[in-house]
Each structure stands twice: as structure tokens, then as C-alpha cells.
Design a protein that fits this description.
The structure holds two protein chains of two kinds. By secondary structure, chain A is mostly beta strands. In chain A, 0% of the residues lie in helices and 61% in strands. The chains are: A mainly beta, B mainly beta.
């Protein structure tokens, strides 16, 4: 099975940097996704890590350490529109590679 | 050119009724999913189909029956609706092993 932990809520200031952590335990790891979900909307894909290290995509970066079962999403130059929930999701090994979502971190960006 | 579409967007019905939600994707993906997102915003996989074949069937009451007439469509039929079925239901699709694209969601309210 899989167990994924994220902080429930975070608050950060516009223009600042925020790091959202995700720790996971899984019997077989085959990749980690980050999704963004604005209130009342569908989740949208942000990033994917399968090897250790940092993946950068504009203002967003995602880091993975497989040995520690740990990932973080880094958001730079925060904007008000970044207020949303951020979902960490882990893909398992095995035939159909099921993806399990964490409970999400609700980020509030304040002026 | 909507990528993943669901109908209806809102569904209000009484306990004991039977209802269906439809999902279509025009991305050429081979895998489709149904998720339930409850009031605590936890996104839980219910079913997944790969090339019309059921590959993931989580612990879901058998009142829920998915049907995939072809690779581009995945419908969800729910019998004898209960209060606890109230949630947002998301359809998603992906190419196997890649990120998922979510539909706009169907907000089901059972009264």
C-alpha cells in the first residue's frame, strides 16, 4: 500500500518563496506527481519526478529523494493566483501503476 | 476543443434514485479514471480502464458500475443513491504512465 503525508494548510506572502513538502511510504515507487487544484476546479498537472533531483519549470520546481521518501514543490515569486491546493501523488510499480493522491496542501497567498 | 468533458456538471437527486455521469476525452489517451473527491478534498481513485478493460477497481460499493464503450468514453452509473455519495466526481485520462488530465467534475448532491 501507499501512505502520503502533506501539511494541511500553509500561508505565504505575495512575492515570497514557499516550499510544500510531501513524504511517502510505498511498497514500490515509480514516480511522483504534483497537481494544482483551485477551489471548485479540476486538478491540473504541474510536475513529475521519477529520478532524484530537482526539476525546474518556470516559477515552480519539484525535488525528489527516493531514499528518503520525500519530495517538495517550490513556488517562487508567489502570486495571488497561486492560492490553491497542491496535491502530491505517487505512482506504484506493478502492472497498472496505480496513482495515489495525498490529501493536499491548501496554500493561501496573502498581500 | 475541450480535452476531457463530463456531463452533467451538477446533479441534485433524492436518495434511492439511479443516476449516470458521462465522460469523454478527445486526447487519444488509452487510460481513463473515475475519482471521488469528498468534502475534505481527498481525491480517491474508484476505477480505471485501459483500452476499455477494467484495470483498477478499488473498494467501491457495487452500486457503482463503470462502463467504457470505447477508449474515448467512460461512464459511471450509480444505483440506489445514498447521502454519503454526495461528492464531486472527476473523470480523468492519460497515456499509460504519464500525467492525468482531469475533467471539470460533476458535483453530486443527494438529498
Amino acid at each position: 500500500g501507499q501512505n502520503i503525508d502533506q501539511p494541511t494548510e500553509m500561508t505565504a506572502t505575495e512575492g515570497a518563496i514557499v516550499q510544500i513538502n510531501c513524504t511517502y511510504q510505498t511498497s514500490g515507487f515509480n514516480g511522483l506527481f504534483w497537481y494544482q487544484q483551485h477551489a471548485g476546479e479540476a486538478p491540473t498537472f504541474l510536475s513529475y519526478n521519477v529520478l532524484d533531483g530537482l526539476e525546474e519549470k518556470g516559477r515552480f520546481s519539484s525535488f525528489l529523494s527516493r531514499s528518503k521518501g520525500y519530495s517538495y514543490l517550490l513556488l517562487k515569486e508567489l502570486q495571488m493566483k497561486d492560492s490553491a491546493s497542491y496535491l502530491c501523488a505517487v505512482r506504484a510499480t506493478g502492472g497498472y501503476q496505480k496513482v495515489t493522491f495525498g490529501t493536499g496542501t491548501k496554500l493561501q497567498v496573502i498581500p | 476543443d475541450t480535452a476531457v468533458s463530463q456531463t452533467p456538471k451538477y446533479l441534485v437527486t433524492q436518495m434511492g434514485n439511479d443516476k449516470s455521469i458521462k465522460c469523454e476525452q478527445n486526447l487519444g489517451h488509452d487510460t481513463m479514471y473515475w475519482y471521488k473527491q469528498d468534502s475534505k478534498k481527498f481525491l480517491k481513485i474508484m476505477f480505471s480502464y485501459n483500452n476499455k478493460e477494467l484495470i483498477i477497481n478499488e473498494t467501491v460499493p457495487n452500486r457503482f458500475s463503470p462502463k467504457s464503450p470505447d477508449k474515448a468514453h467512460l461512464n459511471l452509473h450509480i444505483n440506489s443513491l445514498e447521502l454519503g455519495d454526495s461528492a464531486v466526481y472527476f473523470c480523468a485520462s492519460s497515456l499509460t504512465k504519464y500525467e492525468q488530465y482531469f475533467g471539470p467534475g460533476t458535483r453530486l448532491t443527494v438529498t
